[in-house]
Amino acid sequence: MPKKFRRTIQNSLIAIGGVLAALLLLEIGARFLPTPYDGSSNPADTASPFTGWRGKPHFHTTVETQGYYHELTLNSRGMHDTEHPLDKPPGVYRILMLGDSFVQAVQVKEEETAHQVLEDLLNSQNNGQQYEVISAGVGGWGTGQQLMYYRTEGRRYRPDMVLLMFFLGNDVKDNLPGRGVTVDGLNSYAPYFTLAGRGLDPAPWYFAPGLPPAMGSAPPGWKPVNNFLGRLYQHSRLYRQIEPLVARAPEQPSMLDFYLGHNPTFDYAFELTLALVEQLGLEVAQDGAQFRVALISPVDLLQFSQMTPDEREAIYRKMPGLRRAEEIDPPNRRIADRLSQKQIEVLDLFPPFLEHYQQADTPLYFEGDKHWTPAGNRLAGETLFEWLRR
Asked: What are the boundaries of each domain within the chain?
């Protein structure tokens, strides 16, 4: 080897070593600096390398929602549920209920949650069969996180049925990249999935602040680079310290864009979400379990359906694009039809909730919180029971 070439290699290795040593010193120093963000978005959350965040094991607090107080305790898996061993007892039929804050239901006592109401009703049939309904709901989770949870933990319960509780209010936008929560002053981002020309990429992408997220087709080799940085972010305090300088706020479409139309980001998120539901159903079926979907409508949709023509006209004058709501199928019907075409059985909770919303004296949703009250949880559990029994 020529002496000049050898010297070039040596100098290059010294330079690389110097850079790595400097980065190591910066990384060590960054660990002594204050965290870049304050506190936590939700003290009941903890960081997770698989889902971004999840419930904090054995978390306990007192919850107050519009004057309704109760003691909240999360189990050893960080779920608002009683304990369930991973090993399924003989003779037990297990239902794994996936969802977001509507399944987690921290606003009510555990015995008042929809999953516990359903379990109690199933076990009251006296047919000799024992049932367990396992709650796997965490506030803010999107369908992609629910898929990741099923892959890494949920399937280990060996459920006989997986019941996906799909919230129309935000589950579509929650599948876009860049969603995170703050835990102990550091951000934890959800992994995300992409939809390209050949369909869903079933392997997750890990969000890397500062890099443009993939939404559709990506250049060859981009995913390994992105995921390396995304994984690095989870462990590097230096990267997390400089995040405020490089991070960009993600686009936040809403379900209003379903009616307004002409939002490519929302349209992409809508198709991505349907593909994620189908992928979850495929993996559940491969494990030998049944798969069902229940659609949860936000209280705003119930209220809108009960408005007088004059009340609607006042809204249309402020947002003319919403007039399309009179001409197109609502999101619950559109999603139910699309999933049914894929042979996925769907329960739409909108009709029974609308019927009781019109007649019941007891509110089904907390007015400010907009989650189910004990009465709303009971109605959901009872409706699920009748549906599954049929």
From this structure: 1-30, 80-176+251-389
